[in-house]
Design brief:
14 helices, disordered N terminus, 358 residues, 2 domains, 7-stranded mixed β-sheet, Rossmann fold, Quinone Oxidoreductase, Chain A, domain 1, lipid biosynthesis, alpha/beta, 6-stranded parallel β-sheet
Length: 358
């Protein structure tokens, strides 16, 4: 009788009563290499109360920032003991009595960073979650909050781009690079990608062209290319850099007058060096971008909501796919972490922990 008298928003939480939900999580108590400090542990979770939500994690990617956080090399420092991971897609199991925006069965992704996502189950605050359509694929949903959002914001916030304009980027086969190509295709923007040469270069170029790249050149080819001198394609007003060093310098040379280079990574671990000529005579500008900062400063901004809506719509329509990836069972996290550490930018493969195999 009691259950019938409660408001509907409270009923789902009762479904959890006396259910023993045991979460398997990858935890660490000190910084170090993931293979050394991560431990697979089990914890019994309490029922969600008030504005809390119990989530079953379906998939969670391994990002470079996740590895750097575990190593202690990232600006964000967790409190120990900490659960690793920053992104996920999950399914709501049940909710607390005061939850109004989510219900059991809804797919969710994180709105906040540092929640700890390499786990099979977790209890989060309602305000830290965003409900999304279950029509969005698991790999796409699991990776939506970092790489696609980074690409989206860099294309929107630094230069006003119109259809027919051109963007140039190095690291064009990275997860962000693949996202840039797809967004440029959706918005009618020319996307020129620079990659390092490799034995399977023709296959890589074919892949990036299929994602929307207008042209793909190796670092050697871009030095001698006349791609912007023929008049068939506008000289880029925006350059995106995740490599640094000589690669960034070379890319910046191709910017148009008063063009902007946005740096969001430094895979070469070399500083961004400015070519004096373009800096003076073209008055080009150099900016930096960190998605975590943008998300914190725009947590409830309309622009953020619009961004997620547009990305989800593209994914539902099959116009935006997840980066090249491999699904890995949680129990094989050491192999996946080692592979992520050995990643040198050639394969462009992202590893995603598949919690459905637990």
């Amino acid at each position: 009788m009691l259950r019938r008298t409660l408001p509907s928003c409270a009923r789902p939480s009762l479904l959890c009563r006396h259910m023993s939900v045991v979460a398997k999580s990858l935890k660490y108590t000190q910084h170090g290499e993931p293979q050394d400090v991560l431990k697979l542990v089990e914890d019994k979770l309490s029922d969600p109360t008030d504005k809390q939500v119990l989530v079953q994690i379906l998939a969670a990617p391994i990002n470079p920032a996740d590895i750097n956080t575990i190593q202690g090399k990232y600006p964000v420092k967790p409190k120990f003991p900490a659960i690793a991971g920053n992104e996920f897609v999950g399914k709501v199991v049940c909710v607390g009595e005061q939850v109004t925006s989510l219900q059991p069965g809804t797919h969710v992704v994180p709105l906040a960073s540092g929640l700890g996502t390499w786990t099979t189950h977790a209890v989060y605050k309602e305000e830290h979650l965003l409900g999304i359509s279950n029509k969005v694929g698991l790999a796409e949903a699991a990776t939506i909050t970092v790489n696609p959002c980074t690409a989206y914001r860099m294309l929107k916030d630094f230069v006003k781009l119109s259809p027919g304009d051109t963007v140039i980027q190095n690291g064009a086969n990275s997860a962000v690079g693949q996202a840039v190509h797809q967004l440029c295709r959706a918005w009618g923007i020319n996307s020129v990608g620079i990659v390092r040469n490799r034995p399977e270069i023709d296959e890589l170029k074919k892949l990036l062209h299929s994602l929307g790249a207008t042209a793909v050149l190796t670092e050697e080819e871009i030095r001698t290319s006349d791609i912007f001198k023929t008049g068939k394609m506008k000289r880029p007003q925006l350059a995106l850099n995740c490599v640094g060093g000589k690669s960034a310098t070379e890319v910046s040379r191709h910017l148009n007058d008063r063009g902007v280079m946005v740096t969001y990574g430094g895979m070469s671990r070399e500083p961004v060096t400015v070519a004096t000529g373009p800096l003076i005579f073209k008055d080009i500008a150099f900016r930096g971008f960190w998605m975590t900062r943008w998300s914190k400063e725009n947590y409830n901004a309309p622009e953020r909501k619009q961004m997620f809506q547009e990305l989800c719509k593209l994914m539902e329509d099959g116009k935006f796919v997840a980066p090249t990836h491999e699904m890995v069972p949680l129990e094989k996290f050491k192999d996946a972490a080692a592979a992520a550490l050995n990643f040198k930018g050639f394969t462009g493969k992202k590893f995603i922990l598949d919690m459905s195999k637990c």
